[in-house]
Amino acid sequence: MNRWQVKSLLLGAASALLVFSCSGAEQDALPFNEEMPGKARVLTFELRADSLSEGLNTLELEVREDGEPVQVDTVFVEIHMPDMGHHGVQAEVLPTPRGYEAEVVFSMPGRWLVDVAVEGEVSDSCQFVLEVQ
Questions:
Q1: Residue 80: per-residue pLDDT
Q2: Separation between Cα atoms, residue 4 and residue 7, nearest integer Å
Q3: Where are the domains of the chain?
Q4: 8 Å CB contact between 79 and 106
Q5: Any idea of the CA torsion for 39, 85, 101, 125, to the nearest 10 degrees?
Q6: What's the pLDDT tens digit per position in 103-125?
Q7: Alpha helices by DSSP H, 1-133
Q8: Mind listing the pLDDT tens digit for each residue in 29-84?
Q9: Distance CA 69, CA 16 (A)
Q10: pTM confidence score
């Protein structure tokens, strides 16, 4: 084997390794934790997830007023992927000791929007933008 053949072989192996290491199937989905004020600026919403990946995901939601957790009468969580025309799917929301929990199914990787609205003595809403792997 001459020097050029060795270089070509090494370059091909390096390219294959780079493509394999950058493929979505081999990457771990990262945890998600974001806090944002509501549109009415009354409440603060914190959304957490161990990971964001295609398939079933558990979203944890905490609602606060002036830094203190609050319980509200009704919580709505709806996901949609406007770039692909996936219309809103409303999730069932259950209370937990830290706030609320919703199980959602992301049908494909990409940018998803999560609309959160709460109603009770105080009402507010917000929208989270998630990158699902």
A1: 95
A2: 5
A3: 28-132
A4: yes
A5: 10
A6: 999 999 999 999 999 999 899 99
A7: 3-22
A8: 558 899 999 999 999 999 999 989 999 999 999 999 999 999 899 999 999 998 88
A9: 50
A10: 0.75
- Rounded CA gap, 102 and 124, in Å? 18
| Residues found in the chain | 133
pLDDT of residue 14: 41
Query: What gap in Å lies between CA 91 and CA 44, rounded to an integer?
Result: 20
**Pair of tokens at residue 54:** 């295609």
Residue type, 65: E
Give me the CATH topology for the region 28-132.
Answer: Immunoglobulin-like (2.60.40)
Q: φ and ψ at 105, to 5 degrees?
A: -115, 115
Contacts of 51 (CB under 8 A, 6+ apart): 28, 29, 30, 31, 32, 57
